[in-house]
Predict the 3D structure of the following.
Amino acid sequence: MMGAPGNEKGLWGSCCGRLANDKTPYKPWAKAVAAERRLNQLEPHTRCKASGGPRQFITPYGTEIVDLPYLKQILVFDIGGPYTFRTIYLDGRGHPKDLQPSYYGHSIGHFEADTLVVETVGFNEKFWMDRGATPHTEKLRLIERFTRPDFHTMKYQLTIDDPGAYTAPWTTDTYEFTWSEGRELFEYVCQQSNYAHELMVGTMEKVDRSTLIVP
């Protein structure tokens, strides 16, 4: 079970602010993009765009994971930002051959003992996986591992396989979600006119909000 413990109400807290480290096998262009993003955090998420992979869990408001065993699906709700969700299919299906790149891609999962292993492909390049240090391309393939050592703890580890941005697949540290008892999903309105200066302007004096987002 990956949802709420027993019959309790609550949300999983955020994890994994920055995925990359000193050993991340960047390609030169990806390393340069990561450095630029850390200076000028013009992140699409701050303009109400959906964010796939681990960025869905990097939110101050937490995440709701809903296990639907009768449908063989898990839904992951992103409370803040664009207020969207993704579906993880557990019915044994494979990935479609004609996937249209999207923010969340296409996720399929299976259990290995107590660990839910989720493979996602079919991402577009219009979001950031974290807050800037981990660029990606449409070649991205993510492997997420969710493990619950007890009802109130969720461990999360990520393997990033993107030959467009990195010279080899690499695996992150293991992060931990914490359980916030009694909290529920609430209505959140993402304001597209909110400048969020500390996340969007960086070293620039201003941001031209009339142009399209360029990740």
Strands lie at 10-12, 63-68, 73-78, 85-89, 106-112, 115-121, 141-150, 153-161, 170-171, 175-181. The mean pLDDT is 85. The first helix runs from residue 28 to 39.
